[in-house]
């Protein structure tokens, strides 16, 4: 009986559809949780930039705020304005959310597969040869969610906000795709995994091999710094975030295209926006910053840097325990030390990989995922930092920057990169 | 019924449903949405055939730019539902059979020369993207540069046409 | 595998539906969209033939068709905007005078 169960389990694991479904569900769960805590992170960080506390009442340090927000979205009244085109009104947030979540399917998180019952399970949902083109197609389609939302709301503010938003997205899409072409010229492929692996080609240079600096085995190829700046600026504009968020600024057009959308439909737009932020940050790390590659070279001399995850987790866990023990509320005094202890335990277990062999394998497995996640969080930090610091651009200034500054600069980047590769490149 | 054939029938069915919906709907924006569905299904069919670059270009250019242009114009011109004006009486009875006859004749004309290709398997062309780009920049470089000029002319034309009247 | 004829029959059906929409609809924008549908049907036939011959010439031509369709859509929609401005209506039956 147990043996037949084990056989059934092994057969399930070797079934392609089951594994993919499990991966999709897991990825959705992780991304939605990261979204929720990204909203917490943003509110806390913007608040601290503005010299105030963010949410700090709902849980210890406001950690339960996303849960409270989610409950609020579920229980709020969901009115549909009169005179809307029902089909398009309901379709628009669904489209925005579906497209945002779909683009996560082609992002690779780690090169090392998980070996389970002899079956290799890779940490991505799919790895097509044209992964980057698929991401751009989905970005191109995501204009519809906003344009249709603005139109379907039967309100002139929404229509204007929707049109402005979608015009902005289309304009910056050009600069976005052109700024990536420099990387594509260096990598000769659209596959995201190959782009990362080509930044790993000279094993003794570590972070100098990343595309932002572009040191390869042959010598110095063109650093893609301008490409990265154009890409990130265009990406901030593409996701309608500050300082490019005039179309959804509260004081300008009420709330832009999502004025007439209440509780859960608004939550769908919200999740779509944050997921787009996460996708673009993942893309920026993959294309320009080496994806899952470590900051340090992969030679035996630098082997000790493999314990950086534990070296960061252990002090942070201890600090959370210390902070929890002197927190005001009793609930905080209970929960925060537990969280801190869990972090400390994970760090200690990974550090024990120095002596215990299976834990060493776990530590090696965690490495690419840790570096990838760390870099993505750095970019998300930049996103929130830009929101808290920079003033908004007026709409005509915004369009001027997109067409007259970013597009020519990214085209010039392509031309110079192509020229450099022709003259001095070997591939 | 292999998986490829099943996916083909699903995508083809969706494309036909989208095209029928384009004819059926009264409001232009619903027709535009159906056309987007058709284009995405066709991009899926191109992917099924192994023409990945064309599929991506179809979605990015057709679905992401041209149809957005259509939707902007429909929104800005506030196009409403179609009015039902005088319909010729003959058209109701002869219209549909004639349309079927047109489709059948086109299908016959296109499928008959392909009888010799009946055994051609739909194997993806290896390195199709590389071959396309080589061909675009070597054999077809002159039409390629001409298309850039064509787009420039189209942009200028659209700008001039849609200008506000000078008071 | 899918035989080439299936793709060609689908292309013919889509072309026929585009022609039907072109003839029967009254809104200028919908007529224009049916032109795009017909162009898409032709693109499908091109790619199907390109795959069965094993050469990429068909796909290169599809790229050119897409570019020309984009240029045509831009100019055509400009003309439609002008028609709306002059006749205050998007009904193609009202655009039936040689002089205003």
Indicate the overall shape of chain C.
Answer: elongated
CATH domain class of the largest domain in chain B: Mainly Alpha
Oligomer state of the chains in this structure: heterotrimer
Query: Please, what is the average pLDDT of chain C?
Result: 90
Short recap of the structure:
With 167 residues, chain B is mainly alpha-helical. In chain B, 74% of the residues lie in helices and 0% in strands. The longest helix of chain B is centred in the middle third of the chain and has 25 residues, at 52-76.
Produce the secondary structure layout.
The complex is a heterotrimer of chains A (427), B (167) and C (100).
Chain A: H1 2-13, H2 16-49, H3 65-75, H4 86-102, E1 114-116, E2 119-121, H5 131-141, H6 143-152, H7 156-187, H8 192-198, E3 215-216, E4 219-220, H9 225-238, H10 263-288, H11 308-325, H12 330-351, H13 357-389, H14 395-424
Antiparallel strand pairs in A: 1-2, 3-4
Helix pairs in contact in A: 2-3, 2-10, 2-13, 3-10, 4-6, 4-10, 6-7, 7-9, 7-14, 9-10, 9-14, 10-13, 11-12
Chain B: H1 3-24, H2 28-49, H3 52-76, H4 89-111, H5 128-137, H6 141-161
Chain C: H1 4-24, H2 28-53, H3 57-87
Helix pairs in contact in C: 1-2, 2-3
What do these coordinates show?
The complex is a heterotrimer of chains A (427), B (167) and C (100). Chain A has 427 residues and is mostly helical. Helices cover 65% and strands 2% of the residues of chain A. Chain A is built from 14 helices and four strands. Chain A has helices spanning 2-13, 16-49, 65-75, 86-102, 131-141, 143-152, 156-187, 192-198, 225-238, 263-288, 308-325, 330-351, 357-389, 395-424, and strands spanning 114-116, 119-121, 215-216, 219-220. The longest helix of chain A has 34 residues, at 16-49. The model of chain A has no long low-confidence stretch (mean pLDDT 86). Chain B has two domains: 1-80, NADH-ubiquinone/plastoquinone oxidoreductase chain 6, subunit NuoJ (Four Helix Bundle (Hemerythrin (Met), subunit A)); 124-167. Chain B is built from six helices and no strands. In chain B, helix 1 packs antiparallel against helix 2 (28-49) and helix 2 runs antiparallel to helix 3. Chain C is built from three helices and no strands. Chain C has helices spanning 4-24, 28-53, 57-87. In chain C, helix 1 runs antiparallel to helix 2 (28-53) and helix 2 runs antiparallel to helix 3 (57-87). Chain C is elongated.
């Amino acid at each position: 009986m147990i043996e037949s169960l084990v056989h059934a389990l092994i057969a399930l694991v070797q079934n392609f559809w089951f594994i993919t479904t499990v991966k999709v569900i897991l990825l959705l769960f992780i991304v939605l949780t990261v979204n929720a805590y990204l909203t917490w992170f943003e509110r806390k960080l913007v608040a601290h930039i503005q010299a105030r506390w963010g949410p700090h009442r709902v849980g210890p340090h406001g950690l339960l705020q996303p849960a409270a927000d989610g409950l609020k979205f579920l229980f709020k009244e969901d009115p549909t304005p009169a005179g809307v085109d029902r089909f398009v009104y309901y379709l628009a947030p669904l489209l925005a959310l579906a497209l945002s979540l779909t683009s996560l399917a082609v992002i690779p998180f780690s090169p090392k597969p998980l070996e389970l019952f002899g079956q290799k399970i890779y940490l991505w949902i799919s790895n097509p040869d044209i992964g980057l083109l698929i991401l751009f197609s989905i970005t191109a389609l995501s204009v519809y969610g906003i344009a249709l939302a603005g139109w379907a709301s039967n309100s002139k503010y929404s229509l204007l906000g929707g049109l402005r938003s979608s015009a902005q997205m289309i304009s910056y899409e050009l600069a976005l795709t052109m700024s990536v072409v420099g990387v594509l010229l260096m990598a000769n492929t659209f596959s995201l995994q190959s782009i990362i692996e080509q930044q790993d080609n000279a094993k003794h240079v570590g972070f100098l091999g990343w595309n932002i600096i572009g040191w390869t085995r042959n010598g110095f190829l063109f650093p893609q710094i301008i490409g990265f700046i154009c890409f990130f600026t265009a990406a901030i504009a593409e996701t309608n975030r500050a300082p490019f968020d005039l179309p959804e600024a509260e004081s300008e057009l009420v709330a832009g295209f999502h004025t007439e959308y209440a509780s859960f439909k608004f939550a769908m737009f919200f999740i779509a926006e944050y997921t787009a932020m996460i996708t673009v940050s993942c893309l920026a790390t993959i294309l320009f910053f080496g994806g899952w590659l470590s900051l340090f070279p992969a030679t035996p001399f630098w082997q000790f840097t493999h314990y950086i995850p534990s070296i960061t987790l252990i002090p942070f866990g201890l600090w959370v325990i210390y902070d929890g023990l002197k927190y005001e509320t009793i609930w905080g005094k209970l929960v925060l030390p537990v969280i801190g202890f869990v972090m400390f335990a994970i760090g200690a277990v990974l550090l024990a990989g120095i002596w215990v062999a299976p834990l060493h394998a776990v530590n090696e497995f965690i490495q690419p995922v840790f570096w990838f996640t760390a870099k993505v969080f750095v970019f998300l930090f930049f996103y929130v930092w830009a929101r808290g610091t920079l003033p908004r651009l007026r709409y005509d200034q915004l369009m001027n920057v997109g067409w007259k500054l970013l597009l020519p600069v990214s085209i010039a980047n392509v031309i110079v990169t192509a020229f450099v590769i022709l003259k001095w490149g070997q591939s | 019924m292999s998986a490829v054939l099943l996916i083909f029938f699903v995508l083809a069915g969706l494309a036909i449903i989208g095209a029928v919906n384009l004819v059926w709907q009264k409001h232009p924006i619903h027709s535009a949405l159906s056309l987007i569905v058709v284009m995405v299904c066709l991009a899926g069919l191109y992917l099924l055939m192994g023409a990945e670059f064309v599929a991506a270009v179809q979605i990015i250019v057709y679905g992401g730019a041209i149809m957005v242009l259509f939707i902007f114009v429909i929104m800005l011109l506030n196009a409403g539902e179609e009015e039902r004006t005088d319909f010729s009486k003959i058209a109701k009875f002869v219209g549909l059979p004639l349309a079927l006859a047109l489709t059948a004749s086109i299908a016959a004309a296109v499928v008959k020369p392909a009888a010799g290709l009946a055994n051609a398997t739909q194997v993806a062309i290896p390195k199709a993207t590389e071959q396309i780009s080589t061909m675009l920049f070597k054999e077809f470089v002159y039409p390629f540069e001409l298309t850039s000029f064509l787009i420039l002319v189209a942009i200028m034309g659209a700008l001039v046409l849609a200008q506000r009247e000078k008071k | 595998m899918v035989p080439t004829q299936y793709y060609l029959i689908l292309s013919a059906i889509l072309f026929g539906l585009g022609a039907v929409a072109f003839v029967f609809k009254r809104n200028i924008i919908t007529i224009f969209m049916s032109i795009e549908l017909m162009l898409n049907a032709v693109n499908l036939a091109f790619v199907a033939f390109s795959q069965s011959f094993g050469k990429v010439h068909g796909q290169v031509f599809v790229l050119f068709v897409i570019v020309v369709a984009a240029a045509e859509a831009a100019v055509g929609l400009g003309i439609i905007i002008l028609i709306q401005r002059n006749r205050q209506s998007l009904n193609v039956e009202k655009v039936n005078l040689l002089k205003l």
